[in-house]
Amino acid sequence: MSTQPTTKKAIAYVTNKDELMVFTHTDFPKAGVQVPAGTVEESEEPLFKCQRK
User: Fold this and answer.
1) 12-28 pLDDT per residue, tens
2) If you placed Cys at 12, which of 16, 17, 29, 36 could pair as Cys (CB 3.0 to 4.6 Å)?
3) Nearest Cα to Cα of residue 34 among 47, 48, 20
4) 39 and 9 in contact (C-beta within 8 Å)?
5) Model pLDDT, residue 4
6) pTM for the whole thing?
7) How far apart are CA 3 and CA 17, in angstroms?
8) Which of the four pLDDT bands, split at 50, 70 and 90, describes residue 49?
9) Res 42: pLDDT
10) In angstroms, what CA-CA distances link 35 with 5, 21, 43, 47, 51?
11) Both ends of the chain: CA-CA distance in Å?
């Protein structure tokens, strides 16, 4: 059994009543519509990452 390195990710679903915040990357249109997300650095808490995003 091999051990794969793990990467922590933070994903935020930001809502306002019945609306969901989404965005597209203008530099990468093929990425499609996304919600705020990103890699959590080793010394970082996931909640802080969501707030930073």
Assistant:
1) 899 999 999 999 989 99
2) 36
3) 20
4) yes
5) 84
6) 0.64
7) 42
8) low
9) 82
10) 24, 7, 23, 15, 13
11) 35
19 vs 2, which has greater pLDDT?
19
DSSP string, the chain: -PPPP---EEE---EETTEE--B--TT-GGG-SB-SEEEPPTT--HHHHHHH-
Please name the amino acid found at residue 31. A
Per-position b or e across 15-29, b if 16+ CB within 10 A of its CB: eeeeeeeeeeeeeee
Cα torsion angle, 13, 14, 17, 20, sign: negative
Q: Decide: residue 49, CB within 10 A, 0-12 exposed, 13-18 middle, 19+ buried.
A: buried
Phi and psi at residue 40, in whole multiples of 5°? -90, 120
